[in-house]
């Protein structure tokens, strides 16, 4: 009973080598036993789930693959009486109508223009989203400036036909903008010349854009009433997504602003738009927007829901971004301020990159919601994918029992592929950004 | 600082602070928590607003004029208790950010300057890592280098060692001593009395938002005038 012995029990007198982790039982059977049948409750759950899968999966496989009809030109191919076997999904119907689902009533001879639009869209999306793509700054210019112009010209045919009054107004406004930049620079004691040049640059870009839109490119004009299907769905979703993020960021910053008027305006906009169902926003955009505009000015019937969707998504985005801003520790603001960064520099360089990273899941969640909500534009008479399917499934030429199910299955597949893609992409980005940046 | 007062709501945090810091002077500020030490030095680069009195930094008075505030912040470096490095940027980017965006320095020059100061705080080899990969002491040294990159006329330290493990305090203090020996004007809130003895020209003791005692370190430690100071010193010098 000596203290020396006791001490030895507790104190190491040499370094312990690092050991490999203990070798647990491995292999599939051990895994199953541990994860599926570890106790009576777990075993029952496993069996119930297996039974449910047995009940659900085979009929789906039968419907989608085994009994599906892949070829045919009319309803006879998809009716059990005429086909001579039980009929599941009538993919022949989708194949027959696919052009309508993709383009709506867009004139057949002009559909190559839509195809180019799809290609340009894909190019822009890949350029911006592929994180190792070369010159992503150019990609941004392409996607946010060149691509919208090209799309407008391609899809509508260009030749926007602005009135002389419009151009006069533009010239007056341009002069005001340039003068405003100069005055603001003088007011802030900044050098006047570069400010005026920046103002002139902005005016020039807008002017060139308008001139390009007005130029006659020799394309046959296609009114938006003829557009439809996936074209419209992707268009509405793209415009909504592209506008909602920057606009939402501005609203979120506005809501946290120290200036009471800016803050009030942001809060009112966000709470009003968020407190109203999207359908109401769409109907209001459709019927009330023309009331607010001067008499001879009309907004295209496709543009109205576009604006509505963009506003709606912005309000939601603003709240997501605000969550990220609020998660930022005060020290980051103080660190930035103590180095002499001004407010825009602090926000753009320090706060937003971190805040947005925190809320990537929320942003993508909003995007996915928005993408699916685009189907609501059908309510104001826009022929998006769902509406084209609705119109096709009652075609007497294809009257068969499973036509409606097939149409909806196709729509579900389409939406799922895009939303799942967004979800996977965001997971990838999160994982990539997580390495090495952790606090 | 002339007759500076500050209130948080009803609470009177700073009460008639008068302090004149000469170029090249090194001042250590100590005092119990809640005595207004941090608030006082944070007023100097306007992270906190004072409501009465005047603060003049190198001839520029701090008012609501944003331009002047930015001017002052350019010349005043600050090191925080919790480092406040930018976790999404590398060490080098942390250091070059302000020179590039505030001083409009070309990127190459800014990187040269940054490497110079990183070498001085003895961590040039960490330049391409992220702050999260560094130890606390290393991070604080980066924070010091980041401030030095702006070539400040005065450095403010707000309890730079209180969030560090004991093992790392020394490396940061050594860096600060080095800086002091080169003649940098420093205002330092700290309880490292060894540091105060070694480099300070004056030691300030604050309590209840007032400067209670101000003296040379020798006098301050050997012969404290005020009852409150004596009590404080007896509690932190065991």
UniProtKB/TrEMBL annotation, chain A:
Q: Is Acyltransferase one of the keywords?
A: no
Record keywords, A-Z: Cell membrane, Membrane, Transmembrane, Transmembrane helix, Transport
Q: Which residue ranges run through the membrane?
A: 36-57, 112-131, 138-155, 167-188, 195-213, 225-253, 265-285, 305-325, 346-368, 405-423
All copies of the ABC transmembrane type-1 domain together span 230-426
Which is one Gene Ontology cellular component term of this protein?
Answer: ATP-binding cassette (ABC) transporter complex
User: What is the name of the protein in this document?
Assistant: Amino acid ABC transporter membrane protein 2 (PAAT family)
Q: What PROSITE patterns does this protein's entry cite?
A: ABC_TM1 (PS50928)
Family the entry assigns: Belongs to the binding-protein-dependent transport system permease family. HisMQ subfamily.
Q: What is its main location?
A: membrane
From which organism does this entry originate?
Microvirga subterranea
TrEMBL record, chain B:
What SUPFAM superfamilies does its record include? P-loop containing nucleoside triphosphate hydrolases
- A UniProt-annotated Pfam family: ABC_tran
Name the family: Belongs to the ABC transporter superfamily.
According to UniProt, the name of this protein is General L-amino acid ABC transporter ATP-binding protein
Domain spans labelled ABC transporter: 2-233
| Source organism, top-level taxon | Bacteria
Q: Which UniProt keywords apply?
A: ATP-binding, Nucleotide-binding, Transport
What Gene Ontology terms describe what this protein does at the molecular function level? Answer: ABC-type amino acid transporter activity; ATP binding; ATP hydrolysis activity
Record keyword Chaperone present: no
């Amino acid at each position: 009973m000596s203290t020396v012995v006791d001490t030895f029990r507790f104190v190491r007198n040499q370094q312990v080598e690092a050991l490999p982790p203990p070798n647990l039982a491995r292999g599939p059977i051990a895994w199953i036993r541990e994860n599926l049948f570890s106790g009576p409750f777990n075993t029952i759950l496993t069996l119930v789930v297996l039974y449910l899968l047995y009940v659900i999966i085979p009929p789906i496989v039968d419907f989608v693959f085994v009994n599906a009809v892949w070829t045919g030109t009319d309803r006879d191919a998809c009716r059990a009486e005429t086909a001579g076997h039980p009929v599941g999904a009538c993919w022949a119907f989708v194949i027959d109508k696919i052009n309508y689902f993709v383009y709506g009533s867009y004139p057949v001879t002009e559909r190559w223009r839509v195809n180019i639009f799809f290609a340009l869209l894909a190019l822009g999306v890949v350029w911006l989203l592929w994180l190792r793509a070369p010159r992503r700054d150019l990609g941004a210019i392409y996607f946010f400036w060149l691509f919208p112009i090209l799309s407008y010209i391609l899809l509508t045919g260009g030749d926007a036909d602005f009135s002389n009054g419009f151009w006069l107004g533009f010239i007056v406004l341009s002069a005001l903008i340039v003068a405003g930049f100069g005055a603001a620079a003088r007011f802030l004691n900044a050098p006047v010349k570069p400010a005026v040049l920046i103002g002139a640059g902005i005016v020039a870009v807008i002017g060139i854009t308008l001139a390009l839109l007005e130029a006659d490119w020799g394309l046959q004009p296609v009114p938006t009433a003829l557009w439809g299907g996936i074209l419209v769905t992707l268009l509405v979703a793209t415009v909504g997504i592209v506008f909602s993020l920057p606009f939402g960021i501005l609203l979120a910053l506005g809501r946290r602003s120290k200036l009471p008027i800016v803050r009030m305006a942001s809060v009112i906009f966000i709470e009003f738009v968020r407190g109203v169902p999207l359908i109401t926003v769409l109907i209001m955009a459709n019927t009330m927007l023309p009331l607010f505009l001067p008499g001879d000015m009309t907004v295209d019937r496709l543009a109205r829901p576009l604006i509505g969707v963009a506003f709606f998504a912005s309000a939601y985005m603003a709240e997501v971004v605000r969550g990220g801003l609020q998660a930022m520790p005060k020290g980051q603001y103080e660190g930035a301020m103590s180095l002499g960064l001004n407010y825009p520099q602090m926000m753009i360089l320090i706060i937003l990159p971190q805040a947005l990273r925190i809320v990537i899941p929320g942003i993508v969640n909003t995007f996915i919601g928005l993408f699916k909500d685009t189907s609501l534009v059908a309510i104001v008479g826009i022929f998006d994918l769902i509406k084209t399917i609705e119109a096709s499934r009652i075609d007497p030429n294809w009257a068969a029992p499973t036509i409606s199910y097939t149409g909806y299955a196709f729509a579900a597949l389409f939406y799922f592929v895009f939303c799942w893609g967004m979800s996977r992409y965001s997971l990838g980005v999160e994982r990539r950004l997580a390495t090495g940046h952790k606090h | 600082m002339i007759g500076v007062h500050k209130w948080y709501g009803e609470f009177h945090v700073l009460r008639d602070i008068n302090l004149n810091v000469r170029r090249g002077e090194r001042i250590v500020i100590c005092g119990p928590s809640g005595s207004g030490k941090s608030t006082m030095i944070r007023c100097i680069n306007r992270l906190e607003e004072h409501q009465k009195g005047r603060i003049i930094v190198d001839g520029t008075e701090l008012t609501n004029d944003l331009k002047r505030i930015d001017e002052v912040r350019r010349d005043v470096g600050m090191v925080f208790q919790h480092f406040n490095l930018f976790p999404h940027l590398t060490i080098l980017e942390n250091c070059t950010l302000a020179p590039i965006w505030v001083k409009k320095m070309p990127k190459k020059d800014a990187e040269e300057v940054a490497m110079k100061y990183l070498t001085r705080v003895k961590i040039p080899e960490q330049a391409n890592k992220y702050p999260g990969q560094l130890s606390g002491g290393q991070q604080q040294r980066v924070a010091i280098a980041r401030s030095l990159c702006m070539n400040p006329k005065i450095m403010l330290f707000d309890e730079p060692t209180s969030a560090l493990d004991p093992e790392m305090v020394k490396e940061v203090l050594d860096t600060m001593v080095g800086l002091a020996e080169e003649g940098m004007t420093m205002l330092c809130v700290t309880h490292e009395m060894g540091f105060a003895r070694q480099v300070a020209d004056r030691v300030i003791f604050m309590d209840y938002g007032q400067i209670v005692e101000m003296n040379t370190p020798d006098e301050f430690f050997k012969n404290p005038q005020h009852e409150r100071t004596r009590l404080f010193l007896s509690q932190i010098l065991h």
